[in-house]
Design brief:
Blueprint: H1 2-24, E1 37-39, E2 47-49, H2 61-64, E3 67-69, E4 74-80, E5 83-89, E6 95-100, E7 119-122, E8 127-130, E9 142-146, E10 151-160, E11 163-172, E12 175-182
Antiparallel strand pairs: 1-4, 2-3, 4-5, 5-6, 7-10, 8-9, 10-11, 11-12
């Protein structure tokens, strides 16, 4: 009887651990963090289009017109697939993370290189995805919503003053996109 109880208890603990992973996603230690390098005076590329992911068919915020002026303050996260990852201030004073296409960013020198993983996850609740990694509740920065059952991929994590977030890849209207969701 004690052996059966021990086996049942072990199975329950395993199921709880598996369900906890499904709810909270991958553990922070399984992911590579990434950072941004500050460029107070910009990187001197003029006004560049910005996409939410490093692909020419990726979602583009601001009704498909997202761009950044790179001659002033901009942060760089490094190159991913030849595209330059940037964080910049928008016209409304919030921040956006996105990618400048290779033809605009060829000569930018940076030691930063994000190392992303693709850990498949399935949303079990409604989750707002933001392109602003600096503000928790900036509703103007929501670029999409994951519905229960939607598949997304956790790429990395980002910490900002104890505000930990997953950086994910998902789809917005059939287009690839990247953004931030809170870590549970």
């Amino acid at each position: 009887m004690k052996k059966i109880f021990a086996v049942v208890l072990a199975m329950v603990l395993v199921l709880l651990a598996v369900s906890a992973f499904a709810v909270s996603g991958p553990a922070k230690y399984e992911l590579t963090p990434f950072k941004f390098e500050h460029h107070k005076n910009g990187i001197g590329l003029g006004n560049c289009p910005v996409y939410s992911a490093p692909y020419s068919d990726a979602y583009r915020a601001a009704n498909g017109k997202a761009s950044c002026a790179t001659n002033s303050y901009v942060d760089i996260g490094g190159y991913d697939n030849g595209w330059l990852m940037v964080r910049y201030e928008t016209n409304n004073g919030s921040w956006r993370v996105g990618y400048i296409p290779p033809q605009y960013a060829r000569n930018v020198k940076t030691p930063m290189t994000p190392h992303f993983q693709y850990i498949r996850q399935v949303a079990n609740e409604w989750i707002s995805v933001s392109d602003n990694n600096l503000a928790r509740n900036d509703r103007s920065s929501v670029i999409g919503t994951l519905e229960p059952g939607d598949v997304y991929y956790v790429l990395a994590y980002y910490d900002y003053y104890d505000y930990s977030q997953y950086y994910i890849e998902f789809e917005v209207n059939g287009q690839p996109a990247r953004g931030f969701i809170p870590m549970c």
